[in-house]
Design goal:
Elements: E1 25-35, E2 42-49, E3 55-59, E4 65-70, E5 73-74, E6 80-83, E7 91-97, E8 100-106, E9 116-121, E10 131-138, E11 156-161, H1 179-194, E12 199-202, H2 217-230, E13 235-242, E14 252-256, H3 263-274, E15 282-287, H4 291-295, E16 300-307, H5 311-317, H6 320-345
Parallel strand pairs: 1-5, 11-12, 11-13, 13-16, 14-15
Antiparallel strand pairs: 1-2, 2-10, 3-4, 4-8, 6-7, 7-8, 9-10, 14-16
Helix pairs in contact: 1-6, 3-6
The structure holds zinc ion (ZN).
Length: 346
């Protein structure tokens, strides 16, 4: 995430007009936008100018105020106070200070120079764009707290047995409930991981709702995310069993959401193992905007271990040996993940 630093604290002599005594530059427009199309979101502020002025940029000591001075510049049309994106740039005041136009940019969190980029753009006649001064401020992102070293020793793993209590999850034609399959797999998994040195927390250890009976879906799912966040989990894994209207559809799927550079690796490592359990088709890894995956900050995955709507797979899922086998494969998959993550982080 290292970005090229273009910290302009000097004078631009490139522009032809930058000689002392010339008439002032004039700012004719100020606009801004939040850009979410980069790895880290940023606010881009743009000032249109009739010619490029000298620019001075200075960040105060605690990184909360960025002052950008356009030398010998007037900007009656843009003077004022602007509210921007409260997460990245809380506000900007543009005012004339003697011969210079000064932007006082308020930053909500202590920002470092590497997260700020101030640069001029030449006029672009082909696209009818004037000279511009651009100020980019990147969002302050706290460093990740989850561990990505090899092995399961000392890793904190939160396992979420899907559904529970008032929420049965899927129900098979022969009345097998999803919640009653996800729980035993999680209970078998816990000691396997602990034997390899991990600290394991289950979102539920018996048949109950995590938030409360008959809660709305978001409250129930957020309660599970909260457990993972409070535990500062290194991995958050939710276990589910699929269902579909057509009984011939079956297989194991692993879902992930690409919010860290590790989510895909986690899903692949898990899937390499869970797809080895005999009697189930392999539906591969897939991306999804599932609540648990999007709203947790650590690498997370959601496994769908076969289909309750598929009679063949439903019969397998009733077997204790199959549930133990899934637990074993998940444990191996998690260990494989940490070993891969360790190589990625180097
Ligand atoms: Zn489910």
């Amino acid at each position: 995430m290292k970005r090229l630093i273009c910290w302009i604290a000097a004078v631009f002599l490139l522009c032809l007009g930058a000689v002392s005594g010339r008439a002032a530059s004039e700012v004719t427009d100020f606009r801004w936008v939040t850009r979410n199309d980069s790895a880290v979101p940023f606010v881009r502020m743009v000032l249109d100018v009739d010619r490029l002025p000298a620019i001075d940029a200075e960040l105060n000591r605690d990184g909360t105020v960025l002052s950008v001075e356009l030398k010998k510049t007037e900007g009656k049309q843009v003077e004022g106070v602007y509210a921007l994106n409260p997460d990245i740039v809380s506000g900007v005041r543009i005012a004339q200070e003697k011969r210079n136009l000064v932007l006082k940019i308020q930053l909500p969190k202590a920002t470092v120079k590497e997260d700020i980029n101030v640069f001029p753009l030449k006029a672009d006649a082909a696209h009818q764009k004037p000279y511009r001064v651009v100020i980019d401020v990147y969002k302050v992102v706290p460093p990740p707290t989850f561990k990505t070293t090899a092995g399961l020793q000392d890793k904190v793993i939160v396992i979420d047995p899907g559904h529970g209590g008032s929420d049965t999850g899927a129900i098979s034609a022969k009345n097998l409930y999803e919640k009653d399959v996800t729980l035993p797999i999680a209970l078998y998994l816990k000691p396997l991981l602990e034997a390899r040195g991990a600290q394991v927390i289950l979102t539920r250890e018996d048949d109950h709702d995590v938030y409360g009976p008959h809660a709305d879906a978001v409250s129930e799912l957020q309660a599970r995310v909260d457990i993972a966040e409070r535990a500062a989990a290194d991995v958050f894994l939710s276990i589910h069993i699929d269902s579909f209207v057509r009984p011939n559809v079956g297989g194991v799927t692993t879902y992930y959401h690409r919010k860290t550079v590790f989510d895909e690796t986690l899903a692949e490592a898990l899937h390499d193992h869970t797809s080895q359990v005999p009697g189930f088709d392999d539906r591969g890894t897939r991306t999804a905007n599932f609540y648990l995956l999007v709203n947790s900050t650590m690498p997370s995955a959601l496994v769908e271990l076969g289909f309750l709507s598929n009679p063949k797979e439903e019969a397998e899922l009733r077997k204790d040996s199959v549930r133990r086998e899934f637990a074993q494969q998940i444990a191996d998959g998690l260990e494989a993940y940490f070993n891969r993550a360790d190589r990625i982080s180097r």
